UniProtKB/TrEMBL annotation:
Biological classification of the source: Bacteria, Bacillati, Actinomycetota, Actinomycetes, Propionibacteriales
Organism: Microlunatus flavus
Family listed: Belongs to the ABC transporter superfamily.
Protein's name in the database: Teichoic acid transport system ATP-binding protein
Top-level taxon in the UniProt lineage: Bacteria
Gene Ontology MF terms: ABC-type transporter activity; ATP binding; ATP hydrolysis activity
UniProt xrefs under Gene3D superfamilies: P-loop containing nucleotide triphosphate hydrolases (3.40.50.300)
Keywords (A to Z) from UniProt: ATP-binding, Nucleotide-binding, Transport
SMART domains: AAA
Domain ABC transporter span(s) in chain numbering: 45-264
InterPro entries given in the database record: AAA+_ATPase, ABC_transporter-like_ATP-bd, ABC_transporter-like_CS, ABC_transpr_TagH-like, Bact_Polysacc_Export_ATP-bd, P-loop_NTPase
A GO cellular component annotation in the UniProt record: membrane
Listed Pfam families: ABC_tran
């Protein structure tokens, strides 16, 4: 999990803007090294020249949408569709390759599990670090740390190193930090998937509470039920493109139909 505030150049004064986020023609391309079974000779020649094969992954392609204050937006799509990439771009972790992202307010982000914590430190110590990374002052963090720790219901574990935690226990710490930092914009990426039933219920209640106070909320989930319950707006991404935006029931239905059609098409092609 990674917890941080939006970088200052991305954050705009909230003022009276009716918008929480505006994404304009956003494209994100990852550059990564790629080896398609090079022969020994090719590998040696390249190594001699100091070259590496580079592959570009177009994770988001010309995505545009705006989000008004009061929106709880679900983001759905198949594996690799670009959901986490979009969240990272909105959180200011990933700079756009092209296009713009504008964010009105302080974002609290709870992204991919395991990232962002120093596992050799205790849960309580990570709560303090997470709070500082979210842009709170030392005093504000000290004031809130006990409440955040208490919320996790981890008992004595909260003062033990996080490398002794299960993934669900880490998720509790990350979620607790993210929701207690009084964010203007809350971004949650699949965080609830590792929690047990009790935690999920508690987390859902907390998110409902936050929906009232935050300017906007984003939820990435493969659990379409949670999107339907928690969100009043939804976008569907497929292979980096924005396929549809609208009421969660309608977007979920279109996505489900697409998934089914794609499955049968693949079967036909296979024949
Ligand atoms: N750090 C990276 N370097 C290179 N490629 C990446 C990186 N992170 C993601 N990708 C690629 O970008 C594309 C979008 O990935 P992303 O994680 O945003 O998808 P996702 O919709 O969140 O998927 P999932 O539902 O599986 O979590 C994928 O093709 C993925 O392989």
């Amino acid at each position: 999990m990674i917890l941080l505030s939006v970088s200052p150049d991305l954050e705009t004064e909230t003022g009276t803007s009716p918008y929480a986020v505006r994404v304009e023609d956003l494209s994100i391309t990852y550059r990564t090294t790629f080896e398609r079974k090079p022969t020994l000779k090719q590998a040696i020649v390249r190594l001699g020249r100091g070259e590496r094969a580079v592959r570009e992954v177009h994770a988001l392609k010309n995505v545009s949408f705006d989000v008004r204050v009061g929106t709880s937006m679900g983001i759905i799509g198949s594996n690799g569709a670009g959901k986490s990439t979009l969240m990272r771009a909105m959180a200011g972790i990933l700079p756009p390759t092209a296009g713009n992202v504008e964010v009105w307010g302080k974002a609290s982000t709870l992204l991919a599990l395991g990232v962002g914590f120093n596992k050799s430190l205790s849960g309580r110590e990570n709560i303090v670090l997470g709070g500082l990374a979210s842009g709170l002052s030392r005093r504000e963090v000290e004031e809130r740390a006990d409440e955040v720790a208490e919320w996790t219901e981890l008992g004595d574990f909260i003062d033990m190193p996080m490398n002794t935690y299960s993934s669900g226990m880490s998720a509790r710490v990350g979620f607790s930090v993210a929701v207690h930092m009084k964010p203007d914009i809350l971004m949650i990426d699949e965080a609830l998937s590792t929690g047990d039933a009790h935690f999920r219920e508690k987390a859902n209640a907390k998110m409902s509470e936050l929906r009232e106070s935050a300017r906007a909320m984003f939820l990435v989930s493969h659990g379409l039920g949670s999107i339907g319950e928690m969100c009043n707006d939804c976008i569907w991404l497929d292979k980096g493109r924005l396929m549809m935006r609208g009421a969660p029931e309608e977007v979920i239905e279109a996505y489900m139909t697409h998934v089914k059609v794609k499955k049968s098409a693949t079967t036909t092609e296979d024949i």
